[in-house]
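Customer escalation, tier 2.

The customer says the design service returned an amino acid string that "doesn't look like it belongs to this structure." They asked us to rerun it and document both sides in this ticket. The original structure tokens are below, unchanged.
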């Protein structure tokens, strides 16, 4: 890293914590601070994703077995398909099980995602990554006064000194240090976060080893608006780090939580305003409300930067099946890209459109990209067109059936009568097969 000589930042060490009560009153919803001027877009030349499924994701679930970790890591690597978009994945390094999981994943020989570590902000842990031939590790370096004063019971000067000691012990091992700026969206950016980052740049220069910064939106307080002010505005935060301090975009990473339903848009915003990397977890699974979903960020990347990157998105479907069936982790049925019903319609008017051309009501070719053909669920709202679409989807017919077929009308009438009698559940595939054989047997060939 090269220091930026345009501006220097001095640590402010107040006696009392800066809690921004005008923005975070606690007894009310946090304020959205805005100004008239906007920050300009500043996307970096390089863009990628990192993964925290085995760290933040695992913190919110019963512990995964070593076998599960290896299987998920393998599928992640197959999803990346050697593109390097899913650049890294972080692992705990504390227990024998943690070590075994890392070794099992290393044995797969995958280039991406690179395995990185996570250790406590303690010099005694600094040697753990080297023992496993891990070249980078994350450590927790909280930056808001909520954490420094109220949790650590220190002042800013003490906190910075302790953090720098741990970082230096990691660099002494020849390991890249990744400092997790916890709660950055409630921090004093100019009074602590930037002075601390400047000291990290000096250490990096002295040792000739990267020091990275993960900007952690711990409570999802970040705002994506280009005129949102500090400490909540993501464009404002990234402008301060990249334009004012001169911290390299390639060594910046955004880690967002979803407390205010903004994890995904905040992560995309971080890309657009100067962060090379965004940290994600599969299906957004993480502490409390979770993180930015890895699979959604992959789709956003394709949409924003390179539609032709050869990711294997069908692995999203395999991963969803693994999480639900093997790990027993539920994914909401309407969850984008992965829920069992995300591309299932129950509306008759939608089914009528699908019968004519599926592009009318499908987001993209989900059968090709996700191995998830669009489907119709049969209810009292589905209509004749939905029944026709269901039949054409499930049976190989010489000619697709039209919704005006008399047999379809009979099936529709029988279903309507059931709902008139009080039925509230969808018609199962088994029930539909029975009705098709009852009313349309002459049209059927081998399934």
């Amino acid at each position: 890293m090269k220091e930026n000589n345009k501006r220097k930042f001095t640590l402010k060490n107040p006696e009392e914590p800066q809690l921004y009560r005008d923005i975070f009153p606690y007894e009310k919803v946090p304020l959205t601070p805005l100004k008239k001027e906007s920050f300009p877009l500043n996307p970096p030349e390089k863009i990628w994703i990192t993964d925290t499924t085995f760290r933040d994701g695992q913190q919110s679930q019963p512990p995964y077995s070593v076998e599960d970790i290896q299987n998920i890591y393998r599928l992640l690597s197959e999803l990346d398909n050697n593109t390097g978009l899913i650049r890294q994945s972080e692992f705990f390094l504390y227990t024998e099980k943690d070590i075994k999981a890392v070794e099992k994943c290393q044995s797969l020989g995958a280039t991406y995602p690179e395995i990185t570590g996570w250790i406590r902000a303690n010099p005694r842990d600094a040697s753990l990554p080297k023992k496993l031939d891990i070249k980078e590790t994350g450590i927790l370096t909280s930056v808001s006064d909520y954490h420094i004063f109220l949790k650590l019971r220190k002042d800013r000067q003490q906190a910075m000194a302790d953090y720098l000691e741990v970082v230096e012990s990691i660099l002494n091992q020849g390991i890249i240090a990744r400092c997790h700026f916890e709660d950055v969206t409630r921090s004093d950016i100019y009074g602590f976060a930037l002075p601390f980052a400047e000291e990290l740049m000096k250490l990096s220069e002295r040792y000739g080893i990267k020091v990275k910064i993960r900007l952690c939106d711990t409570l999802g307080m970040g705002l994506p608006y280009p005129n949102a002010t500090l400490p909540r505005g993501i464009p404002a935060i990234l402008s301060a780090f990249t334009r004012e301090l001169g911290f390299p975009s390639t060594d910046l990473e955004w880690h967002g939580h979803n407390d205010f339903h903004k994890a995904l848009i905040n992560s995309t915003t971080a890309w657009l305003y100067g962060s090379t990397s965004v940290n994600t977890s599969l299906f957004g699974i993480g502490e409390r409300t979770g993180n930015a979903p890895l699979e959604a960020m992959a789709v956003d990347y394709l949409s924003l930067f390179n539609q032709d990157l050869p990711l294997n998105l069908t692995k999203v479907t395999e991963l969803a099946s693994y999480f639900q069936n093997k790990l027993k982790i539920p994914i909401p049925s309407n969850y984008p890209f992965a829920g069992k019903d995300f591309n299932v319609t129950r509306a008759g008017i939608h089914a009528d459109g699908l019968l004519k051309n599926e592009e009318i009501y499908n987001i993209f070719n989900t059968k090709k990209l996700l191995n998830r053909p669009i489907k119709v669920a049969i209810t009292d709202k589905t209509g004749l067109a939905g029944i026709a679409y269901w039949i054409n989807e499930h049976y190989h017919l010489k000619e697709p059936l039209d919704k005006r077929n008399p047999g379809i009308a009979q099936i529709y009438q029988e279903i309507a009568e059931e709902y008139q009698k009080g039925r509230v559940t969808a018609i199962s595939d088994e029930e539909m097969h029975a009705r098709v054989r009852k009313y349309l047997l002459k049209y059927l060939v081998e399934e």
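Tier 2 assessment: The sequence is consistent with the input. The chain has two domains: 48-326, 344-443. The longest strand covers residues 86-92. Sent an explanation to the customer and offered a walkthrough call.
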